Sequence to fold (355 residues):
Amino acid sequence: MATLIHTLVDHSDDVNYCAFSSTCLATCSLDKTIRVYSLNNFTELPYSPLKGHTYAVHCCCFSPSGHVLASCSTDGTTMVWDARDGRMLAVLEQPSGSPVRVCRFSPESTYLVSGAADGSVVLWNMQSLKLYRSGNVKDGSLVACAFSPNGNFFVTGSSCGDLTIWDDKMRCLNNEKAHDLGVTCCDISSQLISANTVKNESKAAVGDWSEDDVSAWLCAQDLADLVGLFKMNNIDGKELLNLTKESLTNELKIESLGLRSKVLQKIEDLKMKMSSISVTIPDEFLCPITRELMKDPVIAADGYSYEREAMENWISNKRRSSPMTNLPLPSLMLTPNRTLKMAIGRWLETPQKYS
Fold:
């Protein structure tokens, strides 16, 4: 049963959004201000309210560390504040000048996304506080956004009901009409099912892939530059499996021998996975980062097991949070999980596992 703890009545107009850090609560309003409260006793911090926007403030969010606060407004700007003393760190102007409806930090605070009423979406570099990439959705205003726990991709939702998935270089991985009416909110679970939108390759369903599934697969194989070409030629899963050296050369006009060879090798790898595995791999044998069968499992400080190479790459990219929980890792030590490795070995040696 829920119990009312406190009521805050400081805003003079409608409250549009609220956000928590580990120590603070931030609220934003049509009254053009952002107010910040301590979670200890819900008293307003000395520097609050934050003033700078000239029109209604639609959204606010804390960085994962809680040290930085972002807010966005009808005035076409996203403002970045120091949450410790209330200093304004930057005013990020939407290139189109359109009202900004939503803003979100990536899990490692590397980027800040801002989405606007005209469908424009901007990825800001938080180190330089400069525009890094930008894009546009097909229809509607951007009103919702969420990052994946590992920060490799994010999703935006629009007022016309579309959901669009972008990678961290602002390449569109997928777009679909998800709702009849507008999207109002979206989020991504910390329990990753996949790092991309491709169907599980361990199931022989590649022949049923759509063109968007093929595009996502290309991005996952570091072949994102071919997405436009494949879409132009309507390459779906069935067409993908039938591609040959001749069709890549004569029909798709891929001139580079090295690139053709890479595509063909990736397709062969895909066919091997389809033909070799006839049952679903037990989930505990899959690396949470790559969603592939682990060969050298290790236990991280969060208690979860990962493929060694995948976790080492995660750490080498200066990520210090758990891929599973998004909480800080108390240690970067990786311990071999020999018990799990032996269990995977026994599973692989069991004849009925294979066709």
Remarks:
- The first strand starts at residue 15 and ends at 20.
- Residues 248 and 254 are 6 Å apart (CA to CA).
- The chain has a mean pLDDT of 87.
- Helices lie at 211-220, 227-232, 237-241, 245-250, 257-276, 308-316, 338-349.
